[in-house]
Amino acid sequence: MRENGLKARQKRQFKRTTDSHHAFPIAPNLNDQDFLADRSNQKWNADISYVWTGEGWLYLAVILDLFARQVVAGRSATGCTRSWRSRCCARLWRSEDLVRG
């Protein structure tokens, strides 16, 4: 390996990024793992995710219609603060993009 200029790389240890033992209130799981819906706008799910871009992290919040399996509203930002998450949820709920039945 030395003759060919190769070096061994150790696998990085898994790093947990979610703190499940926090003091903040936890929203109830109303869907209870049942992600099937009989009609549009019967069940929605919301999620916040992040994507690495060449300019840094991009945070994305979306509301999904579980019947259509489509995004019905979404917002993005370059930072994911608690106030952004709160404002984002409120904006998504009031959004003109949100298809209501």
Model description:
This protein is an alpha+beta fold. The protein has a domain at 44-94. It has one helix and three strands; from the N terminus they run βββα. The chain has one helix at 82-94; strands at residues 44-53, 56-65, 70-77. It has a three-stranded antiparallel sheet, with helices on one face. The model has no long low-confidence stretch (mean pLDDT 81).
Q: Please give the alpha-carbon distance between the first and last residues.
A: 64 Å
Helix content: 10-25%
Q: Look at the helices and sheets and give the structural class.
A: alpha+beta
Tell me the strand order in the biggest sheet.
1-2-3
What shape does the CA trace take? elongated
Strand content: 25-35%
Biggest β-sheet strands, sense, barrel: 3 strands, antiparallel
How many helices does DSSP assign? 1
Number of strands: 3
The overall pLDDT average reads: 81
- Given as residue ranges, the uncertain stretches (5+ residues, pLDDT < 50) are none
- Following the backbone from N to C, one meets helices and strands in this order, namely EEEH
Quaternary structure:
single chain
Rg, please? 20 Å
Short description:
The protein is α+β, with helices and mostly antiparallel strands and 101 residues long. It has one helix at 82-94; strands at 44-53, 56-65, 70-77. The chain has a 3-stranded antiparallel β-sheet with strand order 1-2-3, with helices on one face.
Topology:
Layout: E1 44-53, E2 56-65, E3 70-77, H1 82-94
Antiparallel strand pairs: 1-2, 2-3
